[in-house]
């Protein structure tokens, strides 16, 4: 069968599965359970461990009443926690991940938070000073419209 004729086949369970971050992770955990998914400095996770960690994070987001279309912001470098957020946020009922660029200053971070309508904001410890200033900026703007 040629590739052109295969494209003419109607999509069904036998020949098609949508690939999303969530379905990718489930499939990787099922088929590559003990294979390495992440190596970061001294940290090493398998696909099963990554899936389990992401499920726990998604459950935590749900316990914070995160729902479909809610925005979850994160300010973190390329660390395992940010990697896990890319899976866990959509796992939490279709929430939206807003990964904020770590090179931005407090004023820009505040602007992004304001416009995103983030319901939850995760911050890597090394960016706490910038975030404190960003939140002060937000409070000042909201008190003086």
Short description:
With 145 residues, the protein is of the alpha/beta class. The chain has 6 helices and 5 strands, in the order ααββαβαβαβα. It has a single domain (18-143), classed as Rossmann fold, CATH 3.40.50.980.
What does this structure look like?
- Belongs to the ATP-dependent AMP-binding enzyme family.
- This protein has about 140 residues and is of the alpha/beta class.
- The protein has one domain: Rossmann fold.
- About 50% of the residues lie in helices and about 15% in strands.
- The protein contains 6 helices and 5 strands, in the order H-H-E-E-H-E-H-E-H-E-H.
- Strand 1 (about 35-40) and strand 2 (about 45) form a beta hairpin.
- The longest helix has 17 residues, at about 45-65.
- The radius of gyration is 19 Å and the shape is globular.
Broad structural category: alpha/beta
Q: The CATH topology, please? A: Rossmann fold
Q: Within the largest sheet, what's the order of strands?
A: 4-3-5
Order of helices and strands: HHEEHEHEHEH
Q: What do the pLDDT scores average to?
A: 92
CATH class designation: Alpha Beta
Task: Give the N-terminus to C-terminus distance in angstroms.
Answer: 65 Å
Family: Belongs to the ATP-dependent AMP-binding enzyme family.
GO molecular function, one term: ligase activity
Keywords: ATP-binding, Ligase, Nucleotide-binding
Main location: cytoplasm
């Amino acid at each position: 069968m040629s590739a052109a004729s295969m494209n003419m086949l109607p999509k069904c369970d036998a020949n098609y599965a949508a690939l999303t971050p969530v379905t990718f992770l489930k499939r990787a955990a099922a088929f590559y359970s003990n294979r390495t998914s992440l190596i970061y400095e001294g940290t090493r996770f398998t696909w099963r461990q990554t899936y389990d960690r992401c499920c726990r994070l998604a459950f935590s987001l749900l316990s914070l009443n995160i729902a479909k279309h809610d925005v979850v912001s994160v300010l973190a470098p390329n660390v395992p926690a940010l990697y896990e957020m890319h899976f866990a946020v959509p796992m939490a009922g279709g929430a939206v991940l807003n990964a904020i660029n770590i090179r931005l200053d407090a004023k820009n971070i505040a602007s992004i938070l304001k416009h995103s309508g983030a319901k939850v904001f995760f911050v890597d410890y090394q960016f706490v000073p910038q975030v404190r200033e960003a939140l002060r900026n937000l409070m000042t703007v909201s008190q003086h419209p």
